[in-house]
Design goal:
The structure holds 2 protein chains of 2 kinds.
Chain A lengths: L1 H4 L2 H7 L7 H24 L6 H26 L7 H19 L2 H24 L5 H20 L4 E2 L3 H8 L1 E2 L2 E2 H19 L1 H11 L1 H6 L4 H27 L1 E2 L7 H11 L11 H20 L7 H20 L2
Antiparallel strand pairs in A: 1-4, 2-3
Helix pairs in contact in A: 3-14, 3-15, 4-9, 4-10, 4-12, 4-13, 4-14, 5-6, 5-7, 5-12, 6-7, 6-12, 8-12, 9-10, 10-12, 13-14, 14-15
Chain B lengths: L3 H15 L5 H11 L2 H7 L1 H8 L6 E3 L15 H10 L19 E7 L5 H15 L4 E7 L4 H13 L4 E4 L8 H9 L4 E4 L9 E4 L2 H15 L4 E7 L5 H14 L5 E8 L5 H13 L5 E4 L2 H13 L8 E5 L3 H9 L4 E3 L6 H12 L8 E2 L5 E4 L6 E2 L3 H4 L16
Helix pairs in contact in B: 1-2, 5-6, 6-14, 7-8, 9-10, 11-12
Classes of the chains: A mainly alpha, B alpha/beta.
Chain lengths: 328, 408
Amino acid sequence: MALQRSLPADRAARGPRRGVDVRDVLARYGTLIALVLLVVVAAALSPRFLTTVNLMNVLRQTSIVGVLGIGMTFVMLTAGIDLSVGAILAVSAVLLGGTLERTGNIWLALAVAPAAGMVVGLVNGLGVTWGRVQPFVMTLGMLGIARSLAFLYTGGEPIPILDMGFLRLGIGYVAGVPVPSVVFLLLLAAAALVLRYTPFGRYVYAIGSNEEAARLSGINVGLYKILVYVLSGATAAIAAILYGAQFAAAPAIAGEGYELDAIAAVVVGGTSLFGGQGGVIGTFLGALIIGILSNILNLTGVSPFAQPLAKGALIIAAVWIVGRGQRA
Amino acid sequence: MTDDRTAQRLDALIGDYLRGRTSRRRLVAEATRLGGLGLVAAALAPERRRAFAAPNVRSAVVSSAQSDKQPITDMTTPELLAFYDEVLPFRDQLPMEAGEVGGGPIKVGFSQTGFNHPWRVEMIKAAQAEVARHPNVSLVITDGNVDIRKQNNDVDDLLAQGVDAIVMSPVESAGLAPAALKVMAAGKPIVLLDRDVPNEKTLFIGQSNVTMAKGVAEAMVKALNGQGNVVELTGLIGSSPAIDRQKGMQEALAAAPGIKVVANGDAEWIRDPAVKLMDDFLVAHQDINAVFSHAEESSWGAQFSVARANRCAGKILHFTHDGSNAGFQSVKDGLFAADGNYSPFIGDVGVRAALMALQGQEIPNREEYEFEGFLYRLPDLPVVTAENADAWIGKGWGDFAPPENPCG
């Protein structure tokens, strides 16, 4: 009997009937479980947490970092990283503000911002592929360059955005949901579909899992790597539009440090820093977790000295939980 | 801008300015009075940008020719002299007659933190205005790029150029101590502005963030009749002006037990963190009477949040700091109840102190203090409220437009 019990074939046969595999559940739903737990704790700590106003605030506050996180997820799925998203946000924002100020043409401004973001993303992509500069180094360099361009363009003075038509993007609602959140959710849905159902999406995972294998199976690895950085530039520019519309100004310091928030959302969402694993839905949940934590710390009046500690601990804990499962 | 006559006058103003018939400052003051500052700013956007596109300029010597525009600020000598008389608030501090100083030419070096913020450029402008009053004095200015190493090198360069005295506003206190020591070792006066170094110097000239914030908080206590709930939006956590502004508020509130600070958060001197904090504070507290903010940008952000949360009816008052023209305009518009007046116009006082030291004159009212060398305390400028806003618009820094009051 003892011998029989240890036979692998026997275990495999009994596997499905044994019920829940904790590791598998953690790997698949760890982020979601963490989010639910956090919501329960938050609701217990503050009676105002579950009000519509507050939940809409959280959703709105999450939208900018969430949009950055979408592009960042694609980059990180290829085992890359994009440290320049905050700086691209700034370049796009000041060009948007400058175009609005000079021409008053909203549509032109809405075209200029993504164009700028995609050009910077293209340079990142070319540096990583043709130039063979490591993504960390390439985008770290670009962080400085893009931030500096924003300062040179504005001369250090924030550009005020006074166009009420444009500002409506930031303050308006669609069916009770803030416009920035609607933009975020639409992009999220599109990104999830692309990752799941298009060849491009599958190539992104393939490149991140094993770049050499992807190359040998005929995937144009260089092209798709360039595309993910262009995509990241584009989402940073869309985040810039949301920034300008919400804060009615385009300063050169816009988005400083946002790259780290976006990376945090992606890793808390279960996407691996080594590529090939994860997805944008995880990033959405990760962004919500970080947003809700910051929200409940403010609602309960935790000292600003202690808040970064709580956020840091939560990031490590969330990644640790998900990692338990993935090692199975 | 519905009124045609106002629009015409604004057009004429812009025309005069572009033809050089009126100064930028007068244009701003006039446009602000007419309520068309935003319009003028938009009309002059490319022009204005050129004026501030200074970061490329590494160092430059002020020429004495009357018609020449000065570097960085783009102002001519007559414009600077007019600016001196109309705007500079500290003319009575270490006062000095116009005209030649001593015998022979004097070259003063001005090492600025950086040209990346209008506040810094306005400080340069004040120094240029003082120099414009003395035909035998010239000024060399350097851009520290907000970098300790660069500013240390700048001071070396200034000494190598043979300046007679140096005025410096350091990037960082400890990091520029070696530079100050070098100037002292060369036997030349060094006057520090706004930020001190912890060692020997000729003179440190500063305004107090503590007493300024105390003044703003006292205005708040008065406006709230000593009763109410306040949320505080601080400047970047741990930075010395943020620590001092908080200290000033706490000193004032110690005498007002009816006022309670119900929440505080790090708004980093800027707009977007303030919006988020205020969103959350408004949910957590239904009865906020005032926002005490360390920076105008954060106050504007907080007001956006108030409007979006449909809480305009709560008449939340904003008490803030910075002293920009846009901030003063917001006081006038009723968006801010009070604005602490932390002025960049101290460059002229620094130049005068350097010239006095060169003449061997003792600085009156200087004090000994914790570090070697002497301290000169500038008096607090009045807190700007609805009562004096009109008088101060045009005498603050920057010429950008404030956002419209979303609760207006």
